[in-house]
Amino acid sequence: MFLLARWLSRQPLWLLHVAGAALGWFAYAISPTYRRRFIGNARQAGVSRAAARPAIAQAGRVLLEMPYLWLRPAGIPIVPAPTLRGTELVEAAHAKGRGIVYLTPHLGCFEITAQAIAEHFAARHGPITVLYRPARKAVLRDLMGNARGRPGVATAPATLAGVRQLMRALRRGESVGLLPDQVPPAGMGVWAPFFGKPAYTMTLAARLVQQTGAVPLLVWGERLGAGRGFTVHFMPLEEALPQDAKALGESAAVINRAMERLILQCPQQYLWGYHRYKQPREADDVGIE
């Protein structure tokens, strides 16, 4: 598997996106469960089939571009400076000496955001620490762990130790990255509306902001056509999070509403097939929140 990933990492991005589009449509065609979930989630969000249809190909591109992003040689930039939008928000937060909690939904190329932040800000403001859930298979776990630990990017497992690592980074004035629309383990979230339907939602993002004074920012990586790369967009969280640390339900709802607005800006690149409304699994490390 590693050899295949290494080979894919050396292919041109346009070719990976062409092959990924075919893979996305193949998965959509052969899996009735995936197809029903894709259509149902888009309908729940009020997105028409025509608007969601391009996301079928985009889902396959997500998979095949990962080796390209994880394993390319260090020092080769993937997102030139002109393709970053809203960087003044990042600079303003760091100018105040505050850390940043970046919130990224399963929209566009979410793997690119941390790398772009590392390439453009790590030298001056320290690395970005990204929370991730280790893969269950050892070969994938080793590949993901090694690949995501690129220059300027630190990784923290979704465990109690990992959350402490995030807290320390924010208190140093650094940044952390989370996928707030990822379903957390049981006991580590609350049920909050997501496109009008209860979804189990992490409370970790709000806790990090409340306990460290960090600035929450939205960020997502728009995938450009014809393998031309990506544009990374930084945006503010329009609604303030509640100051009361016990208002976890409202904090989760605020973040979900922000994710909804972001997704509806480009529904063609959201992972509608993601099982957002599933029941949470049991926690591997109880009490990380």
Describe the structure.
- There is one protein chain.
- By secondary structure, this protein is of the alpha/beta class.
- It has a domain at 79-269.
- It contains eleven helices and nine strands.
- Strands 1-9-8-2-5-3-4 form a seven-stranded mixed beta sheet, with helices on both faces. A two-stranded antiparallel sheet has the order 6-7.
- The radius of gyration is 18 Å and the shape is globular.
- Residues 285-289 have low confidence and may be disordered.
Helix fraction bin: 40-55%
Q: How many individual β-strands?
A: 9
Order of helices and strands: HHHHHEHEHEHEHEEEHEEH
Count of runs of 4 or more consecutive helical residues? 11
- Computed over alpha carbons, the radius of gyration is 18 Å
Low-confidence stretches: 285-289
Regarding quaternary structure, how should these chains be classified? Answer: single chain
> Which class best fits the helix and strand makeup?
alpha/beta
